[in-house]
Write a structure and sequence with these properties.
alpha+beta; Porin; eight-stranded antiparallel β-barrel; 6 helices
Length: 468
């Protein structure tokens, strides 16, 4: 096996071993039964502050409302995509929170039958022994009913992967995301009023990583090796996590609505509500594919750019020069801004030609994804370019030419006031003398490749409503 193949194999194995910790914990023997795993929200729910008074709640049926069956490559099966035990998971989450006293309502007929058996048995015993038996205590009744269920299960919300292979050695990785959504609502049993409704969604990740080698190492000697692992997030744990998050949200939103309160009083209530509002603000500004959305707070900005101009004219050798500019932009809508730019260009062409120019531009900038942290933009407009005379070229004719320009770029959010951006721009002039050579019919033009810092300032705007 040659050196290149060895490097390719090492790279593939590195992708496999470092990309998935489950590779080192593969099951090589039968495992004993164990207490069920905790979801990410379980401990948070258990650590909630204690309530002033526990609420008696009834859960009749928190069911699967999706009607979704497991999908296969060649169709589907009659197995449901999500667990049918959502009611049991919800009752467990209510117990863990210590805010609620759940009572048996899912199999109420079984409970009533058993109480009837107890009554008849006691009556028979009393008739035979003439020994009076105590009456059964009354059942607890719920002040609040919890309703809702699993409303959607979306398969293959996003899929993707990457891989590489070189001379029979390579590796690849693939992933897939599904999504589950639940609604939970609290209903007053005294008047039927819906007190509060919460909505929670959770993604379910599946990953596959593999590496392989197929290589002739000698005449009639074939080396073939492969390894890999697939890891699927359990749907049951994802569903449990979503239900526990819904219970947590119901508790905090109930505190905010004045339905119940903590044992410690107003200060603890405020801490819970502030933390929940901050989390909710971030999550509501995140789209389906975990795209973080940034509210637009400022309408004004200064751009400080550095770039390399490249003159495309009649010179035989084309090189990159240096330049910089300062621009002021004013946002007229979330998707559009107007900018005024003033810049300096030091244009070169080989060892013998150099020239200094100033350029001004007025541009209309279109922001394609204005609320995203990484957002492309396009712009275009018009302006002027003129040269800067020195003593050496004082006798030469001064150049002053209108121009048109357009460009594309990528804006990266750094903070509320700072963005970083890169761009490429093409400028078309109305003169053939930028290189001091008049040749042919086509006017001179030049490119700019650069990067810059965008500083946003001015009075804060109210946060834009994020809609897509």
């Amino acid at each position: 096996m040659d050196t290149k193949s060895a490097f390719a194999l090492v790279g593939s194995l590195s992708l496999l071993l470092f990309g998935c910790g489950a590779y080192f914990n593969q099951p090589y023997k039968v495992q004993d039964a164990r207490i069920g795993e905790l979801a990410s929200k379980t401990q948070i729910l258990r650590d909630m502050p204690l309530p002033y008074e526990q609420v008696v709640v009834g859960v009749y049926n928190f069911k699967d409302q999706t009607g979704q069956y497991k999908t296969l490559e060649n169709g589907s099966t009659f197995s449901t995509a999500v667990s049918q035990g959502a009611t049991t998971m919800l009752i467990q989450a209510l117990e863990d929170s210590k805010w609620f006293i759940p009572i048996e309502r899912e199999n109420l007929s079984n409970l009533l039958n058993e109480r009837n058996i107890i009554r008849s048995t006691r009556d028979e015993f009393q008739k035979r022994t003439n020994n009076p038996q105590p009456a059964l205590p009354p059942l607890l009744y719920a002040g609040v009913l919890l309703e809702g269920g699993v409303v959607s299960y979306d398969s293959n919300v996003i899929t993707g992967g990457a891989g590489a292979r070189y001379f029979g050695a390579g590796g690849s990785t693939q992933y897939r995301e599904d999504r589950i959504s639940i609604y939970l609502r609290a209903v007053s049993t005294s008047n039927g009023k819906i007190l509060k409704t919460v909505y929670v969604s959770k993604t379910i990740l599946s990953q596959a990583i593999d590496a392989s080698l197929f290589r002739y190492v000698n005449f009639q000697r074939l080396l073939e090796a492969e390894t890999g692992i697939t890891k699927n997030e359990p749907v049951q744990l994802a569903m449990k996590d979503a239900i526990e998050k819904a219970v947590e949200a119901l508790i905090v939103e109930g505190i905010e609505a004045g339905l119940w309160t903590t044992k410690d009083g107003a200060l603890t209530n405020k801490k819970l509500m502030d933390a929940y509002k901050a989390e909710k603000e971030v999550e509501e500004a995140t789209l389906v594919h975990n795209r973080k959305q940034i509210p637009l707070k400022y309408k004004n900005a200064l751009n400080f750019n550095a770039f390399s101009p490249r003159l495309n004219a009649d010179l035989s050798k084309k090189t990159l020069g240096l330049g910089g500019s300062v621009a002021y932009t004013k946002m007229v809508s979330p998707h559009a801004a107007i900018g005024l730019d003033l810049g300096y260009l030091y244009i070169t062409g080989g060892e013998s030609f150099y020239r200094e120019y100033m350029a001004s531009s007025l541009n209309l900038e279109l922001n394609i994804l204005p609320y995203d942290k990484l957002a492309p933009f396009i712009y275009g407009g018009g302006g002027f370019i003129f040269d800067i005379h020195t003593r050496e070229d004082a006798n030469q004719e001064k150049i002053f030419s209108p121009k048109l320009q357009f460009g594309v770029g990528l804006n990266a959010y750094v903070s509320d006031r700072i963005d970083f951006r890169v761009f490429a721009e093409s400028n078309f002039t109305s003169t053939d003398e930028l290189d001091h050579v008049i040749h042919g019919k086509r006017d001179d033009y030049y490119y700019k490749f650069g990067a810059g810092i965008k500083y946003k300032f001015g009075q804060k705007k109210k946060k834009e409503v994020l809609k897509e």
